[in-house]
Structures are given as structure tokens and as C-alpha cells.
Input
Amino acid sequence: MKHMAKVLIFATREETADQLNKLKTAGCRIVTGEKRWQFPGGKFENDLVEAARETDALMGTSIRETPITARVMQASNRLRIISKYTVGFDDIDIEAATSLGILVCNAPTEANCFGVAESTIAMMLAMLKKLRERDADIRAGRWREPNVLATYVGSRASDGYPGITLGLVGLGRVASRVADLLAPWKIRIIGYDPYVDPTKFLLHRVERVDYESLLRQADVVSFHVALTKETHYMLREEQIELMKHSAIVINTSRGKVIQELALANAISNGRIAGVAIDAFEQEPLANDSLLRKLGNRVLMTPHAAAATERDELRPGVDMSFHIVWAALDGKLPDNICNPEAIPLWKKRFGNVSLLAS
Output
């Protein structure tokens, strides 16, 4: 006799009654985590461990203050799937999951990825076109100040002006969308991603370069990578030294990709021109952060590049429910972030359905 599958929604967000009822009708017991686990101000690993006992699936949105550690996963020897509503999965110990034969999946939807791409371009234009500075001038009674000049972004055929060079670090869904949206501007776009097939660079009209060349050549360096051991602090003092003094940095990926203090010091010292940043090392940003003191050389948004008025994470929630359904049915789901875990997962859970027929 099948046991009743237990699904823990560790961080709730926009789940619908139809989605929940479908799992319940299939014989699943659904448990939801506490809202306080999702927000800054405390760590609740012990509570999460207790909630995760005897679970078959974990799903939810971001839970950085109380990450899903090996200890949480080991609370249930039946756990087969961890599914995120979001693209990021840095709040999950993916190495531990892989060693335990647990699949980790994410939800790279158009609403999420393309929303970040649009925000990336908006941040770039706000910085290069000096929109905040010009707005502040008018409010202060000033008019067309000669020192507040914008950058012409696109290329010009009339005088051979080549436009800026945009450097994309990572060429996944977000960066590819950025490149596609900027194609009519006819700027030079270079990219670094050692894990992407070279044909993808050609498809999106991105020139493939190594990381150091990108830093040396780009006027705008935009980060679009997952947070891993390899990408942790991939921009720090020694990399900043390679960049143009006029360059700006954009980070709409993960905060710990960039060493914030090194970047803030470089901006303060005039080593680079500025940064637009959506994701921070610690969130919310500390009140005493140097980034707060650098005026219009820093543009900050509260880790909300994908947040829009319509839908927001609903497509990701829907994708996650499909992922959990497939895994509970003993089938490989979509969007597996740790494919190395597949052989052990198949051995432990493959073709073993927990769903009522």
C-alpha cells in the first residue's frame, strides 16, 4: 500500500487552490512553512528540519535566511525533489542534494528571466543617460548643466561612432534576452560563458571572449550567473583593476558574485564610474554600507528586478507544481539543476509513483 506523499511548501507564494487541490486529490498531504522563515531577522533551521521530517517533496520561493541545508534534507530519507519557484537555487546545498540523490529544480520562466533582462537594460540606460542626475537638476532649479552629459549607446553610421561595448558575464536565458533586445541598437556585445555551446553566441550575435578580455574591453559589465563556488566573488579588487575607469557594473544575478566593499571602494576612488545593483551580499542592505554613500554613482533596487505588476511568480509556481508532480510520479522532471544526481535518483525513486491513480 502506498504511503501518503508529504509535500512541504517551505516558502509560500501565489499558490492557487486548483494547484493545491490537484495534489490533495492525488493523495498528497500538504504542509506549509511559516512566513517568518522567508524574511530577514532570524534563522529557523531547527523548525525547518522538524517540518521536513518524512517529506517526499519540498517546494517554494526563496528562503535565504533559513536555507535548505544537508541537515534539512536528511530529515527525510524519502525526500526526492526540491523545486524552486524562482531561477535562483543558491539557498539550497546543491552538493548535499546531489550526494543524497535528491533532484533540485528551478523555474526559469519568461516572466522571471525576461523581467530581469528588461530591468537590466533599464538600469544600464538610467546610468548612461544620467536620468536621475538630470531629474535632480530640474528639481533643484538647474537647467541643462554642462557636466551632466549622457552616453550615446548605439552605433552611428553617419560618423562611424561604434557605440558602447556591453560585456555579458554568463549567456543564459537572461543575458540572451538582453542581447536580443539590444540587437537594433547595433552595439558591440561580448560575452563570457565557458559552459555554453559556441553556437549560442552566434545565435544571439554575441562575440565570445575570455573573462579578462571582457573586463578590459567592456564599457558596461553585466552579470548573469548563478551563485556557485566558481562564481562567488568573481568580481573583486584584482578583476576591477582590469576594467576601464569609465566602466559601470550591473548585477541583477546574485549579491555574492561581487565583492561589494571592493566595488564600493573602487567607485569611491574613481577607479570605475559606477554600479547598478539589484542583488546584495546581505539583504536588506546594511544601513552603514558604503554603497549608500556614493550618490548617483550607485543605482540600487531591492532584489526586485523580476517583480512586475502582472503575474510575477505565478508562472514559476505553476512550473514548480508540474515538476513536483512528475517527480512524485517517479518521472524525471524538467529544469534539473544538478543532473549529476540523476543516476542515484533513478536507482532510489525512478518509476516509483506516490500518486493515487
In short: The first helix runs from residue 17 to 25. The chain has two domains: 6-106+311-349, 110-300.
